[in-house]
Design goal:
The chain is of the alpha/beta class. The chain has 2 domains: 2-202, NAD(P)-binding Rossmann-like Domain (Rossmann fold); 220-436, Rossmann fold. It has helices at 2-9, 23-32, 44-51, 62-68, 104-116, 133-143, 183-196, 206-237, 241-248, 272-281, 288-316, 343-353, 385-389, 407-412, 423-426; strands spanning 13-17, 36-40, 72-75, 86-89, 122-125, 154-157, 176-180, 200-202, 324-328, 357-361, 395-398, 417-419, 434-436. The protein is globular.
């Protein structure tokens, strides 16, 4: 067929909708492989920055943009979908206030595609969602255009596997799960992704591919919850959980290390398990294990607040009310600026609700950006190195262990340190005034 030949010859034009942590690296990878790319985003400021050669995520550098610029154009004009042979949906799939799936971004995007696409177009969903979304949500909306999926247009699912801050793997080198809706769609998926990434892994159906992504993140959520619970247990026994994990990790089979922390962050692990628990209700299947893991992980910021209160009481005979705290790191993981679902924001909220004054330092986040939650903190600036050096803090709480933090300098301030990431011990620094939490 003509579309298959266009993909094989790289004469096809690829549209990427949503130029965030998933869509922008994919757009760059597709352009590098030789495809013409149109990147779509509703945020006109992103489009302007990209045309100016400015990247807003660490995974894509200005050099990446410069190298791929001849192959790419960026726009918020969705009528240009009509020019695309492949359209990839990379939009958010958050939870609503009732912790139920919010597919409004996917649905709105699908309607725009249906309005503008032409025959012989491959439409791929990459957004993480519940198993069945491609069949039950995406395909009916696309069919409303009058183009029949499987005959006039073709549909597939390929879950994103981006890992912000991971220097070892990039979009091109991460094995890519792909599934097409039918044999023709599968062949198109293989031709497209096989040209963009080094390794493709074909699974039987989009529903299986959706379940693969959910399973990957539930695996991580449950294991992180397990070590978080073990941390609480071993603390009471006077055992350092970090020493336990280091010892267990020497076993070359049957064990894989996960590490405790102040809670879960990022777009995947705190959210994706709830997509499956919501979906499972339709089949009257309990998801007690997944829900318990979510409960443990969600409660970790409260544990850190409790430990900080204990540390202040022991060191200074005071509580949190009126205490001046320094929160170290507000991104959800080390060495990135990604703030999505960051547990540091929940910590900041809980500390301030308890009456504390909270300043923060983060070499990757000079200013707290707009977020779906925690709008109260939007625009708050990080303390400067001089402001930190002046001290005057009652306690320091390490929430994110960025490599660029001057941990020795923090210890020199002489106040109690609550370390939720084992950052001080990992660097071989003196543990005076440091409490692992």
């Amino acid at each position: 067929m003509a579309l298959l030949e266009k993909l094989r010859s790289k004469a096809a034009t690829v549209g990427i909708i949503g130029l965030g942590y998933v869509g922008l690296p994919l757009a760059v990878a597709a352009a590098r492989s030789g495809f013409g790319v149109i990147g779509f985003d509703v945020d006109a400021s992103k489009v302007a920055r990209l045309y100016a050669g400015q990247s807003y995520i660490e995974a894509v550098t200005p050099d990446d943009l410069a190298l791929t610029q001849p192959q790419c154009r960026w726009t918020h004009d969705f009528a240009q979908i009509a020019e695309c042979d492949v359209v990839v949906i990379c939009v958010p799939t958050p939870l609503n206030h009732h912790r139920e799936p919010d597919l409004s971004f996917v649905e709105d995007t699908a309607r725009m595609i249906a309005q503008h696409m032409t025959r012989d177009t491959l439409v791929v969903l990459e957004s993480t969602t519940w198993p069945g979304t491609t069949d039950e949500v995406l395909k009916p909306i696309l069919a409303s255009s009058g183009h029949a999926p499987g005959r006039d247009i073709f549909v597939g699912y390929s879950p994103e596997r981006e890992d912000p801050g991971n220097a070892t793997f990039r979009t091109q080198t991460i094995p890519k799960i792909i599934a097409g809706d039918g044999e023709t769609a599968q062949a198109l998926m293989e031709a497209f992704y096989g040209a963009v990434v080094e390794t493709i892994v074909t699974v039987p159906s989009p529903t299986v591919a959706e379940a693969v992504k959910i399973t990957e993140n539930i695996f991580r959520s449950v294991n992180i919850a397990l070590v978080n619970e073990l941390k609480l247990i071993y603390d009471e026994m006077g055992i350092d959980v970090w020493d336990v994990i280091d010892g267990a990790a020497t076993k070359p089979f049957g064990y894989m290390p996960f590490y405790p922390g102040p809670g879960l962050g990022g777009h995947c692990i705190p959210i994706d398990p709830f997509y499956l628990t919501w979906r499972a209700r339709k089949f009257d299947v309990p998801t007690r294990f997944i829900e318990l893991a979510g409960e443990i992980n969600t409660n970790m910021p409260h544990h850190i607040v409790h430990r900080t209160r204990e540390v202040l009481d022991k060191a200074q005979g005071r509580g949190l009310n009126g205490a001046r705290l320094l929160l170290v790191g507000v991104a959800y993981k080390k060495n990135v600026s990604d703030m999505r679902e960051s547990p540091a924001m929940r910590l900041m909220q809980l500390f301030e609700e308890a009456g504390s004054q909270v300043g923060f330092v983060d070499p990757h986040v000079p200013l707290i950006p707009p977020m779906r939650e925690y709008g109260l903190f939007e625009g708050r600036a990080a303390l400067t190195p001089d402001e930190v050096a002046r001290g005057g803090f009652d306690a320091i709480v390490i929430a994110t262990d960025h490599d660029a933090i001057d941990y020795a300098g923090l210890l020199d301030l002489g106040c109690p340190v609550v370390d939720t990431r084992n950052a001080i011990a990992r660097r071989g620094l003196a543990m005076t005034h440091v409490t692992k939490a």
